[in-house]
Write a structure and sequence with these properties.
With 182 residues, the protein is mainly α. It has helices spanning 12-30, 33-40, 45-54, 63-83, 103-107, 120-130, 144-150, 155-159; strands at 93-95, 141-143.
């Protein structure tokens, strides 16, 4: 039985309140001048700032903050799994191994479209997780592609997730595999 399903989300109102409370000083400590200018040109500035916290390049100020948040969420999932292993409750973290097409990847210019995968790969990985009895899959840091391979996905099925239907010439992978441009 699924009791709950968590998704990595930031509280937009919380960021908005922090900006109101601390003003420009807060913005300048968290965001680059280019990010601030870009976000302030749009009606949904705070929404765009949230997206930028999660999708920054290697030279951006927020990279280490984002990595710490991601590591923290993963460690929390592992801790919850350990705490509830005898209760039939599973807890895992799921991450993409490469850039997923999203408003963040579009708005922040993460690579080019040929290097992106469809979000369906995460949906399919999540469905595989949900089809699994909790005691047999808990406490894992799951990467979408290796997990789907483990579940029997073929190269052809995985290649179909690339927006262009085939792996790019210069892929960007987070798992350090050879040939990655990261």
């Amino acid at each position: 039985m699924i009791v709950g399903l968590g998704v990595d989300m930031e509280e937009i109102t919380r960021l908005g309140e922090a900006i109101k409370r601390h003003g420009r000083t807060f913005l300048e400590r968290i965001f680059t001048p280019a990010e601030i200018a870009y976000c302030e040109r749009h009606r949904d500035a705070v929404d765009r700032m949230i997206a930028s916290l999660h999708h920054r390049g290697p030279d951006d100020r927020g990279r280490h903050t984002t990595e710490k948040l991601s590591m923290g969420m993963t460690r929390l999932a592992i801790g919850i799994a350990a705490e509830h292993k005898d209760d039939g409750i599973a807890c895992n973290s799921l991450w993409p191994v490469t850039i997923i097409e999203s408003l963040a990847s579009i708005n922040w210019g993460l690579g080019d479209r040929s290097q992106w995968r469809s979000p369906e790969i995460l949906c399919d990985a999540m469905m595989e997780i949900l089809r699994t009895e909790p005691p047999s899959l808990t406490g894992r840091q799951i990467l979408d592609e290796p997990f789907l391979r483990e579940r029997g996905w073929t190269d052809a099925q995985l290649d179909a997730y690339w927006l262009e239907g085939k792996p790019p010439a210069h892929p960007v992978f987070i798992d350090g595999r050879p040939g990655s441009s990261m």
